[in-house]
């Protein structure tokens, strides 16, 4: 309190932002949660979880990678116990620092690709964590190109077994989460061979570790792949298989089976093995990618109204950085994107649920469209969200570089999502192939899938906008996006144009559905306008290229975009408050609800082990009473080596703490006491160096001058 006289109240600069929002923050939160009951349940779950010391994230940023993994595993085990105790469904609780994340994908693959008997046999074991699973698809030499996977599974009729092998080093499974230390079983994707013929990639249920002691099973080589850029709580691993035998019944057989005589029976599309990936892409976008952008916006926008810098006018108080248009151009488009992506995820979820229901009925016609939609949204949203989080991090200046801001960890997670479960360029190309086929169908007058129906009514006219206000008309900017998407249908590299048209069209439709919520509809309309115009402003060349927009219209669109920034600025804090992230969920010194940024940064920094160690060592080697101490010991926390040229601390005065152990007095070398005491030297260059460092410098220089 002596250092921070304002105490723990809400920062006045943040408090004033919440005084008069143009809409009900609580009502918007319930809309985002799809109902007040969902909001209530989510808050109750968060309260129970975050109040449990076992789920504390207090020291998360100071943990080593092994500590992060071990903490994540402990939390996962404790969470399972708590869920069983409270009778909650596992899917109702999400935490980004839990272990066994891919265990969920493992279970999903069994649910989606296994027979009813396989589900009944293995899912209960996985639900109770009697087995821990991973999904082993990616190999050292192949990732997104599934047909190129090299792991083999050969069926032996005599033994009624599949024999799995890793034929070469490039076929080694590499990157699956939970594989490095945790998984006892894996769903392994391998090329199926029967009587010398390859039947393509299929999923197999493979035990890889002993359930008694966790040791690798015979023929299995498994381990951790080493340090990563982030996500150190996940034990990504490698897997090699040498003549590993599994029963015939261990091939997941909902859509294909091998009979005892070696006959191969197939049902449905050959792309059915992509279903698990589609499921995971939809899930990761909803539960990992979009929330990360929302969190980054919350952190950066709250900080931007607390941080003051420079004068808008001479003599004025320093301004909030969010009052600068340059800062608004950084942050508010990210906020608009977060809302746009929320509504497109609702569209994708509905589309996905419908497609899965049809697939379960044996109807596979919608699978190519579902795969293309999930692929393009995975690529565009992960790219855009990763870039958006980085914009938010930079917008926080130097403090954004601190792990304590919460932003670097969000960025590392999103950067990883740009490559795992399908590298984004490949995802765009896969979606582009679907678009090109649909473009051909449109030219021949054949019916098109719903998401690309616009290709049947391609228009090559000009934009009808006559003034700046026209660009706030959804028909105008939706028409511009539709034109770009239609024109670029022949060019796979511009596949994102298709995606952005769907996002803009869906955002407009979502706003229209808010007719009974006038205040919320108004602010959502502003965000929709901003999202669409920011896209035009950022990619003007696409709209000017064929003359759809004139230069004058481009200026109008830009002016409308810039005017919207000031409108949305007034509600920026209430809009991020509506995401309703508690401080425990955000885990950010910059983004806390009370806005006490500087106090929290300082207090969190005190938890660093380095600070604790420095204080302890400082007390133990404290040079009180003008005693001289070893510089090596002071800096390196170890005994002074015999090669130390001047084993004495160059700062002789220090206020020591009573009762602390001190090192014995050591006399100074003759003639060095004055140099050590003042920190000066007799160097001909006049540098202010301790004698120890000066002698080291001279020795280094002498060695360099030798021939």
UniProtKB/TrEMBL annotation:
Q: Does the keyword Lipid metabolism apply?
A: yes
User: Which terms in the Gene Ontology molecular function aspect does this entry carry?
Assistant: 3alpha,7alpha,12alpha-trihydroxy-5beta-cholestanoyl-CoA 24-hydroxylase activity; acyl-CoA oxidase activity; ATP binding; FAD binding; fatty acid binding
What segments bear the compositional bias annotation Polar residues? 675-684
Q: Where does FAD bind?
A: 138, 177
Q: Does the keyword ATP-binding apply?
A: yes
Q: Which cofactor does it need?
A: FAD
**Pathways per UniProt:** Lipid metabolism; peroxisomal fatty acid beta-oxidation
Where in this chain does the record put each Acyl-CoA oxidase C-terminal domain?
Answer: 497-617
Segments forming domain Acyl-coenzyme A oxidase N-terminal:
24-132
Chain coiled-coil ranges: none
GO CC terms for this protein?
Answer: cytosol; peroxisome
Please give the biological process terms from Gene Ontology that the record holds. Answer: bile acid biosynthetic process; fatty acid beta-oxidation using acyl-CoA oxidase; lipid homeostasis; very long-chain fatty acid metabolic process
User: Taking every annotated instance into account, which residue ranges of this chain make up the domain Acyl-CoA oxidase C-alpha1?
Assistant: 274-436
Instruction: Tell me the compartments it is located in.
Output: Peroxisome
Q: Where is the active site?
A: 421
One Pfam family here:
Acyl-CoA_ox_N
Q: Which UniProt keywords apply?
A: ATP-binding, FAD, Fatty acid metabolism, Flavoprotein, Lipid metabolism, Nucleotide-binding, Oxidoreductase, Peroxisome
Location of region: Disordered: 660-687
What's this protein's family per the entry?
A: Belongs to the acyl-CoA oxidase family.
What is the recorded name of this protein? Acyl-coenzyme A oxidase
């Amino acid at each position: 309190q002596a250092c921070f006289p304002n105490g723990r109240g809400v920062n006045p600069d943040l408090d004033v932002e919440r005084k008069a929002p143009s809409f009900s923050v609580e009502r918007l939160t319930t809309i985002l949660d799809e109902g007040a009951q969902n909001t209530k349940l989510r808050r109750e779950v968060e309260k129970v979880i975050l109040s449990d010391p076992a789920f504390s994230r207090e020291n998360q940023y100071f943990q080593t990678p092994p500590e992060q993994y071990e903490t994540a595993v402990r939390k996962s085990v404790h969470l399972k116990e708590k869920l069983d105790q409270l009778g909650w469904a596992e899917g109702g609780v999400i935490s980004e620092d839990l272990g066994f994340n891919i265990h969920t994908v493992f279970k999903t693959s069994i649910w989606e690709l296994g027979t009813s008997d396989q589900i009944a046999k293995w899912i209960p074991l996985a639900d109770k964590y009697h087995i821990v699973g991973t999904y082993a698809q990616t190999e050292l030499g192949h990732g997104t190109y599934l047909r190129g996977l090299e792991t083999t599974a050969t069926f032996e009729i005599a033994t009624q077994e599949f024999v799995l092998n890793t034929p070469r080093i490039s076929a080694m499974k590499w990157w699956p989460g939970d594989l490095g230390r945790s998984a006892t079983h894996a769903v392994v994707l391998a090329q199926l061979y029967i009587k010398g013929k390859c039947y393509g990639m299929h999923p197999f249920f493979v035990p890889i570790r002993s359930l008694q002691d966790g040791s690798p099973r015979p023929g299995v080589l498994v381990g951790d792949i080493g340090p990563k850029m982030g996500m150190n709580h996940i034990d990504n691993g490698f897997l090699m298989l040498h003549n590993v035998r599994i029963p015939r019944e261990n091939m997941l057989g909902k859509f294909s089976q091998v009979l005892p005589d070696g006959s191969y029976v197939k049902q449905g599309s050959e792309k059915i093995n992509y279903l698990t990936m589609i499921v995971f892409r939809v899930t990761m976008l909803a539960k990992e990618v979009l929330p990360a952008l929302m969190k980054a916006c919350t952190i950066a926008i709250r900080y931007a109204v607390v941080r003051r810098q420079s004068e808008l006018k001479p003599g004025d108080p320093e301004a909030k950085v969010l009052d600068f248009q340059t800062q608004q151009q950084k942050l508010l488009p990210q906020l608009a994107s977060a809302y746009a992506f929320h509504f497109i995820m609702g569209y994708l979820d509905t589309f996905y649920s419908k497609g899965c229901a049809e697939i379960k009925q044996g109807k596979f016609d919608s699978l190519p469209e579902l795969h293309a939609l999930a692929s393009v949204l995975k690529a565009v949203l992960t790219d855009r969200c990763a870039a958006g989080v980085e914009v938010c991090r930079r917008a926080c200046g130097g403090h954004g570089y601190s792990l304590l801001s919460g932003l670097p960890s969000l960025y590392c997670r999103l950067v990883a999502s740009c490559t795992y479960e399908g590298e984004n360029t490949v995802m765009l190309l896969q979606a582009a192939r679907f678009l090109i086929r649909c473009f051909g169908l449109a030219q021949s007058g054949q019916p098109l899938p719903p998401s690309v129906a616009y290709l049947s009514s391609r228009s090559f006219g000009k934009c009808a906008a006559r003034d700046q206000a026209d660009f706030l008309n959804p028909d105008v900017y939706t028409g511009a996006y539709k034109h770009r998407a239609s024109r670029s249908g022949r060019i796979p590299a511009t596949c994102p144009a298709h995606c952005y048209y769907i996002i803009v069209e869906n955002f407009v439709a979502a706003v229209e559905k808010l007719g009974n919520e006038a205040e919320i509809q108004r602010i959502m309309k502003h965000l929709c306008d901003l999202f669409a115009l920011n896209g035009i402003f950022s990619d003007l060349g696409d709209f000017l290229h064929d003359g759809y927009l004139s230069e004058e219209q481009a200026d109008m669109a830009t002016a409308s975009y810039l005017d919207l920034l000031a409108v949305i600025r007034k509600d920026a804090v209430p809009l991020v408050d509506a995401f309703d992230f508690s401080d425990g969920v955000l885990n950010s010194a910059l983004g806390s609800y009370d806005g006490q940024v500087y106090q929290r940064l300082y207090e969190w920094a005190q938890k660093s082990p380095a600070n604790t160690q420095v204080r302890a060592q400082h007390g133990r080697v404290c040079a009180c009473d003008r005693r001289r101490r070893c510089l090596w010991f002071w800096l390196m926390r170890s005994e002074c080596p015999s090669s130390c040229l001047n084993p004495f601390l160059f700062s002789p005065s220090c206020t020591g703490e009573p009762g602390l152990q001190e090192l014995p007095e050591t006399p100074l070398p003759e003639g060095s006491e004055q140099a050590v005491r003042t920190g000066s030297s007799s160097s001909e260059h006049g540098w202010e160096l301790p004698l120890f460092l000066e002698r080291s410098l001279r020795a280094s220089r002498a060695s360099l001058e030798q021939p």
